[in-house]
Amino acid sequence: MVFYHRDTSVKVLSVSLFSLCYSSVHQKKSDPEPSCVSMKSDKSMHHPFNFKNEDTRLILQHRSDVRKPVCEKYDQPMNQPQDSTYPDVSHEVLNIFRSNMMKKFGRLYEGTATQKNPTLLNDIYTELYITESESGEISNEHEVRQIETPSRSAAAAEDTAIKCNDIFRPLPGQDKAIRTVLTKGVTGIGKTVSVQKFILDWAEGKENQDVQLIFPLSFREINLMKEKKKLSLSDLLHVVFPETKEIEISNDEYKVLFIFDGLDECRLSLDFKSKVKLCNISESASVDELLMNLIVGNLLPSALIWITSRPAAADLVPSECVQRVTEVRGFNEPQKEEYFRKRISDQSLANTIISHLKSSRSLYIMCHIPVFCWISAAVLGKILCRAESGEIPKTLTQMYTHFLILQTDIKHEKDYEKNVTDEDMILKLGKVGFQQLVKGNLIFYEEDLRECGIDVTEASVYSGLCTQIFREEFGFYQGKVFCFVHLSIQEHLAALYVHLSCTNHNRNVFDQSTKQSLRSKMKNLFQLNSSKHVSFSELHQRAVDVALRRKNGHLDLFLRFLLGLSVESHQILLQRIMTLKRSSSDSNEKTVEYIKKKIRTIDSPEKSINLFHCLNELGDRSLVEEIQQYLKSGTIKEAKLSSSQWSAVVFVLLTSEEKLNEFRLDKFVKGMNNSENIKVLQKLLPVIKESRSVQLIYCGVTDEGCAALASALRLNPSHLRELDLSENKLGDSVKLLSDVLQNPHCKLEKLRLIYCGITYEGCAALASALRSNPTHLRHLDLSWNKLGDSVKLLSDVIQSPHCKLKKLRLYNCGVTDEGCAALASALSSNPSHLRELSLTWNELGDSVKLLSDVLQNPHCKLEKLWLRDCGVTDEGCAALASALRSNPSHLRELDLSENELGDSGVKLLSDLKDDPHSKLQTLYYRLSVFRRQSSFFKIS
């Protein structure tokens, strides 16, 4: 997690954690000192122009006269290509441009508002875990749940990491050109900081020196332009980056990169089906048309594009326009500790903070998010320095409440604003947070604030007082943008507003936020003016119902905070900054019972996971502790668990410190191949989709279970590595699994479907899926299925140069000489990957000679070949022996048991043991039972 400096067009009253505004700023000496992230510059710059009143080109001309960029000489020359094709003026301009970028992105302000010394980004930057990702389906979970999910966290990720500076470079084995990269990640995970570090490394001449110009633009500023008159891309760049006025951007001699930060904040109508086509950067159009044509590649097709977004908005750009999707996973385990050790100079204190966070599973999971690390460091650093061990936060609500108190303490140091009370400010900010949260807004413009009854001037005051909570930004069109420093802070303040409305003002805001009849409104008004108290239990129950109805789960963390605030320890905390007129803790017992009732009645255990987090905030762990005892004693399969208990099993397994490496259904069910097992399987699907290996052997899985399993795996296709469904009556429902396998992000390596009733149709579906995605599967076992000639379809997969299959087992699959010929042909085309092949109990006859042709290929790496009871004769045996003499260096094991081998065939094979070049270690050739004699030899 890094906090950084950035510039905006005019004086700003606040600071930011993660955002990008790219024009200059004026900072007055009398301004409050910048805190953790400053948007202030130490340079006085010209105020922006308002496009409402002036002609665009007149503005540009005026800017060129009065706003000359300030530059500093580099201490050492840049790695700028000195090519004669560049005019001399371009070298100077490019160096000025880089110098300005270094000043914008090189510094950061971190910590509390009393810190005066800026920190260099390079001194504190902690590398984030970034991987190649799938566009995939949009998750209907709160972003915190995505972080809490084991497979989505950086700690559990095993994918190849991509360094931030390498996002436009193909991985080894990839040959695709990358023009557009979409980087997604939950709020506060470090997307914008990664952008900043990328730009800084480029400006300092360290990385990506083939790029001459980088144009960073944030969507929150671009939004301010949506109502403006049309302008060209050239005009836009000259306004935002006046240094470029002397450069002909349309000239292909310049390699440029556009960075669009915060797609999720976009309020433009990006219509990628629009017929408006722009090919010249001098053509005028609306801003959304400019962006669309730039992303599609109509404008500046040689330019690189980098877009950042939260996951929920990642599909706003069509997948065909994006060549690479990356995901910022946040901090992995070593990076968490690295951050705290860099952030806190006292290493003993850093160790204490790390130890405390590790002791609370819910807090330590959240440390994948860099901004939460910053909040934790600020809060715990303050508390532990005071040795106030009795109140060290152990839940999310406690951590955020302490953070709020810390910020109000800082506010009190600003004596010029003492007339603003804590409660009034918190209620006003909380109201904005709540009303905009319900609408799904994370950034607010002036009209949004007016809808909440907040005056813009009033909002500016709050942003100046609470620089680490609420901020105000100015774009280069003089429009104001407001936002909370992080979504979780907005959610906490929203919950506090709802809580205080009930505690101090006897209001249930959920009654006011829904449509009511006139009679109902009059009734509520009468209650507000009466002595009758609004029930906290009713408020909480109403909040639970509203949160559960939200399909995207975006009120889940808000609900945790709201319920956590009702605990008595929080009442004591809140009294530090305000007066509470009544206690809410008396109603918690009813709230706990209501939540447990909801857990019992919710069909999907996955939906109930957040309710267990709510119980944790309320201090009730009875269900969880009961299940933990079952799991610890190994008696869970003996117990007849209720629906709520199975939900608790899911919660315990998903929040466990232990990795979900293997899931075995037989650990949870008593009888195998039992129809009741399917019900348990469906209860545990959230665990299955987070497991690396899923073992469902002889579990009674049928069409229904296969469909449910496939549906779960589709939600997380890149995590599963091994799946065994052997001895289940799947039949052709295996086609449902094929839909998962053909997903380009499916990385399944081992698939066993032994004795599953798969026929030609099912095999055809599997083969089709593997043709679409052949690069990951390493082990395929389809033994004891009536495949027949459908094996030829698998052969088409094997001969693909992208197929990396190492083990193929086809015991007793009805493979004929025709199927054997197809396999042999495929292996001749792609002989270098397969290591094990089993065709035991198939009537191959002398078609085994075709396999001999493969074995003698010098590129063949086959190590184990099983041909038991395949009708192999002396003639076939001779062909095999000849092949092994030609290419003796790889085959280690050969099984020819129960074949019609004569003495001559046996002798040819046994002679191989005397060949000094042969690597054959084990040879089985038990004679056919029809000859009523047998022999077994093992060569060693």
TrEMBL record:
Chain ranges of the NACHT domain: 179-313
Molecular function in Gene Ontology: ATP binding
Name of the gene: LOC109112261
Subcellular location: Cytoplasm
Main localization category: cytoplasm
Protein name: NLR family CARD domain-containing protein 3-like
Keyword Repeat carried by entry: yes
Keyword Transcription regulation set for record: no
Species assigned in the record: Cyprinus carpio
GO CC terms: cytoplasm
InterPro entries noted in UniProt: Leu-rich_rpt, Leu-rich_rpt_Cys-con_subtyp, NACHT-assoc, NACHT_NTPase, NLR, NLRP_HD2, NOD1/2_WH
Keywords: ATP-binding, Cytoplasm, Leucine-rich repeat, Nucleotide-binding, Repeat
